[in-house]
Design goal:
Radius of gyration of chain B: 19 Å
CATH class of chain A: Alpha Beta
Structural class of chain B: alpha+beta
Mean pLDDT of chain B: 97
Largest sheet of chain A: 5 strands, mixed, barrel
Helix content of chain B: 25-40%
Strand content of chain B: 15-25%
Distance between the termini of chain B: 26 Å
Order of helices and strands of chain A: EHEHEEEHEHEHEEH
Strand order of the largest sheet of chain B: 2-1-3-8-9
Radius of gyration of chain A: 17 Å
Shape of chain A: globular
Shape of chain B: globular
Number of strands of chain B: 9
Number of helices of chain A: 6
CATH superfamily of chain A: Fe-S hydro-lyase, tartrate dehydratase beta-type, catalytic domain
CATH topology of chain A: fumarase
Low-confidence stretches of chain A: none
Number of helices of chain B: 8
Largest sheet of chain B: 5 strands, mixed
Oligomer: heterodimer
Number of strands of chain A: 9
Order of helices and strands of chain B: HHHEHEEHEHEHHEEEE
Chain lengths: 197, 295
């Protein structure tokens, strides 16, 4: 397994090198998104106020302290379960040119197909380990849609975000889904041994 | 013994403390279990994930940081000593105010919204929230408050099945295993798998939640239930889901069952999982206002 360090925005060439299980460290801008702001973009048709070409999007809603108008200091910035945002993958990749989605728990087989098609990846953040990730933030540069607090669009500048684990690569691989599929087979065997059909 | 007015202010302060401390200090039984699980892993990815867990636990302890961003749904189990005389309505108000003050004063992310409009009061409270379960403890003059900030990654994996008597205990085993495997990476494994067996549908789910708050190393007092806990624990840890569902040797830190009697036609089972941090804090208060914090 290899390790990669990238500066955002990402290129398709960056992403195409990655294999499942590789580790990645990111420097630069990463945007925080999740349920409420993506529902606004895709279901209510409000275009995002930022350019997501080559962007890395992190599924998050942080703990912050307000220090001034539109200015926030990070207290605990981690990640959330990505599968809730699964149906937005196509729009993010196709319409907005996003190259990496960061979150926990993985995305569906369909999202993996889309990532292969558009040359994007899913980078698994260690869920619940927000304290570590928070120290990797240099600054919360901007916050958009503060009316959705805490589900705003957050513009973070990271130094050394990671190591992240490649969960979905641009070759159609999907690590979390593979593990789960194996677990389902194993569970069927266990039940059979217990005498339960 | 009738408590004084100042007791309610103290409850408010204690609940504020419980919320903040629970997010920063992972219970010692959990920390030990995570360390043991980390030592059992051989694969690079699983080792990497456990090292992140341990780093974050340490940052909570040494740098006063909130370990996970999810401030959860605030849930309290309140044991009221039978010898304690207090105003239950004021007690509820004090618990709610403590929750709100923790959120405003620290500050914490308010994770609570109205269900349809999705309005957030930025207080971590709302209609029906915090969730407060009261029970009464004979012969005690203490107020015992156990707090859990329940994260949504694991909470969204909750499930209930109204099995029938003919499904038997095998039906229970099958359901639990399917739910844990079906949840996969989403509840932030390794989890504490809480199982409710029996009761009405609502009680069954509450039992499953309560089971997740039991300290590690405890068993159900009924030997048959304890054996079922062990059997399911072994089965779940053979599935290979591992930390963050990226593959590994530990998928559950424990399986805990809580049970109640049920209707002759019913055989309900509920599953409620708690993520790897399994945050919980406890405070025991005497009527004179002495507070003892624990887990």
């Amino acid at each position: 397994m290899a390790h990669f360090t990238f500066k955002t925005p990402l290129t398709e060439a960056d992403v195409r090198q990655l294999q499942l299980g590789d580790s990645v460290t990111l420097d630069g801008i990463v945007f925080g998104v999740r349920d409420a702001n993506l529902i606004r973009v895709f279901d209510q048709g409000v275009p995002p106020p930022v350019n997501w070409q080559g962007a890395a999007l992190l599924h998050t809603a942080p703990n912050v302290r307000k220090t001034g108008p539109g200015k926030y200091e990070p207290l605990s910035v981690g990640t959330t379960t990505s599968m809730r945002m699964d149906r937005f993958t196509e729009g993010l990749l196709k319409d907005y040119g996003v190259k990496a989605i960061l979150g926990k728990g993985g995305l569906s087989a369909h999202s993996a197909e889309l990532m292969q098609k558009y040359g994007a990846c899913y980078l698994s953040v260690t869920g619940g380990a927000a304290a570590m990730e928070t120290l990797q933030i240099e600054e919360i540069e901007k916050v958009y849609w503060e009316d959705l607090m805490p589900e705003c669009i957050w513009q973070f500048r990271f130094k050394g975000l990671g190591p992240l684990t490649v969960g979905i690569d641009a070759n159609g691989g999907n690590l979390q889904l593979d593990v789960q599929t194996q677990a389902q087979k194993k569970a069927a065997e266990i039940l059979q041994k217990m005498g339960i059909a | 013994m009738e408590v004084q007015d100042s007791f309610y202010t103290l409850v408010e302060n204690v609940c504020r403390e419980l919320y903040i401390r629970s997010l920063k200090e992972i219970p010692p039984d959990i920390v030990e279990a995570i360390k043991r699980a980390a030592a059992r892993e051989t694969k690079e990815v699983a080792k990497r994930i456990f090292s992140h867990y341990l780093q974050s636990i340490e940052l909570g302890q040494t740098k006063d940081m909130i370990v996970c961003q999810d401030t959860g749904i605030p849930i309290y189990w309140v044991g009221i000593g039978g010898k304690l005389r207090l105003d239950g309505a004021r007690l509820t108000q004090a618990i709610t105010r403590g929750t709100e003050r923790a959120t405003k004063e620290h500050p914490l992310r308010s994770s609570i919204v109205s269900p349809l409009k999705r309005e957030n009061r930025q207080t971590s409270t709302g209609e029906g929230i915090p969730v407060i379960h009261y029970n009464f403890v004979p012969e005690s003059d203490q107020l015992d408050i156990l707090f859990m900030p329940k994260g949504s990654g694991s909470e969204n994996m909750s499930s209930l099945k109204m099995l029938i008597p003919a499904d038997g205990v095998n039906g229970i085993k099958k359901f639990v295993l399917e739910q844990v495997v079906g949840a996969g990476a989403k509840p932030c494994p390794p989890t504490i798998v809480g199982i409710g067996i029996g009761g009405s549908s609502d009680l069954c789910m509450a039992l499953a939640k309560k089971a997740t708050a039991r300290p590690l190393g405890t068993q159900n007092a009924d030997p048959q239930m304890a054996a079922l806990e062990q059997e399911l624990f072994d089965a779940i840890n053979q599935t290979g889901i591992g930390p963050q569902g990226l593959g590994g040797n530990t998928t559950a830190l424990a399986v805990h069952i809580e049970s109640a009697w049920t209707h002759i036609t019913c055989n309900p089972v509920a599953v409620n999982m708690q993520c790897w941090r399994a945050e919980r804090r406890r405070a025991k208060m005497s009527p004179a206002g002495n507070v003892e914090y624990g887990f």
